[in-house]
Design goal:
heterodimer, A: mainly alpha, B: alpha/beta, 10 helices
């Protein structure tokens, strides 16, 4: 019986060490998971802010594009004139 | 007694064995449970990493869009400079064509249509209409005196792409600007300031009222050098409708230009935008010049026709 107990005791020690390692590993994984969760939340907030900034810029762009439509048209006209003249020279 | 001890020892050993077995079973149970939890956590980590990567990509894309939008906003905010640069590029193309004409590497010829003494409320707008319809850019030698109080018309000439050049503020040839050099210079400067104030634009092209011959006859040869010192290049003309006194018909004005082009490769045509008859003749003058191979351009400082 004693021999069996000795074997059982050795097996128990090995099992406990397995359990210990497993606990350590699991804790490390949980830490990683927590950290990743926090980072993801932070990135979602950053994305929201960036999207809001982007929307604001696009609104601003639409506004000044409308306000400057005459100038944009004038620029196009000059570009067209220049291209036509350059083409004429290459005739 | 010994038998009792032996029995007690056997029970103790069995209890120990039972305890050890229980311990092993608990460890096994824990390991099974932990294995499931580990797999679940690993899956979660994997998903989080994927989500993070996706978020990072979206942030980068959105930031790129912000940057692109900001760049467009900057471009629009600097449109005035961009338009000015584009005008300069256009004039560079004019110069290239002029060089080609002079070198004989093109069959094209060039005509610079120039209109003196405006703007005039009754007629200048109609001239602009014709030029717009015919898609022609011309040069207006304007004076401030007739432009006073007509800002809209004055702006229109410039905004439609025509070259605005200095023709003195008052254009008083007799007993006025040519009285002495100071009177002339002051009138030129007054008109320059007028143009700058009204258009935010500085012209460096000038035509003497009455032409350089009149200016030289009144003020001497030094007057040409004087305008150069003021930063101007000056220009006369080698073609004219002859509309200064409005004595001829539109057909005669037309013929004065179209029948006298000769072999001139580069024409500077003098007209006045107060003339109703030149206005009537203008469409035919434009069409006729084009039919003779002339490309109609606005004057620019680097043109070979500008005396510097």
């Amino acid at each position: 019986m004693k021999k069996i107990n000795i074997i059982l005791a050795v097996l128990l020690i090995i099992a406990v060490s397995f359990v210990y390692n497993n606990v350590q590993e699991l804790n490390a994984l949980k830490d990683t998971q927590t950290q990743l969760t926090q980072e993801t939340v932070s990135m979602k907030n950053e994305l929201d802010e960036t999207k809001q900034n982007c929307d604001a810029k696009e609104t601003e762009l639409a506004k000044i594009t409308e306000e400057n439509s005459d100038k944009l048209e004038e620029l196009e006209v000059w570009q067209k004139r220049t291209a036509e003249l350059q083409a004429l020279q290459n005739d | 007694m010994a038998e009792t001890d032996s029995r007690t020892s056997g029970i103790a050993e069995r209890l120990i064995a039972l305890f050890l077995c229980a311990g092993l079973t608990a460890c096994g149970a824990y390991l099974v449970k932990a294995s499931g939890e580990k797999a679940e956590t690993l899956n979660s980590i994997h998903s989080l990493e994927e989500e993070k990567e996706q978020l990072s990509k979206e942030i980068d894309e959105t930031l790129a869009l912000v940057k692109e939008t900001e760049s467009k906003i900057t471009e629009i905010n600097s449109l005035d400079e961009t338009i000015k640069a584009q005008r300069d590029e256009y004039y560079a193309a004019c110069k290239a064509l002029e060089d080609a004409v002079n070198e004989g590497t093109t069959d094209h010829k060039i005509a610079y249509l120039t209109f003196d003494d405006g703007p005039y409320v009754k007629t200048t707008g109609k001239y602009l209409d014709v030029l717009k319809e015919k898609d022609v850019l011309a040069t207006f030698f304007q004076m401030g005196r007739t432009a006073e109080g007509h800002d809209e018309l004055y702006h229109r000439v410039y905004e439609e792409g025509h070259t605005i050049a200095n023709h003195t503020y008052s254009h008083t040839i007799r007993n006025g600007i040519y009285r002495n050099m100071d009177s002339f210079v002051n009138d030129v400067i007054k008109n320059r300031e007028f143009i700058e104030e009204k258009l935010g634009y500085t012209t460096n092209i000038l035509r003497f009222p009455g032409g350089s011959g009149t200016a030289v006859s009144r003020l001497g040869r030094g007057v040409k050098q004087k305008v150069n010192e003021l930063g101007y290049g000056w220009v006369d003309w080698n073609s004219a409708t002859g509309d200064g006194l409005e004595l001829l018909s539109p057909a005669q004005y037309r013929d004065n230009v179209l029948k006298k082009t000769g072999n001139t490769k580069i024409l500077v045509v003098l007209m006045h935008d107060y003339s109703a008859n030149t206005l009537s003749a203008l469409p035919e003058i434009i069409d006729g010049l084009r039919a003779q191979g002339y490309v109609l351009l606005p004057l620019f400082y680097d043109s070979c026709m500008i005396n510097k």
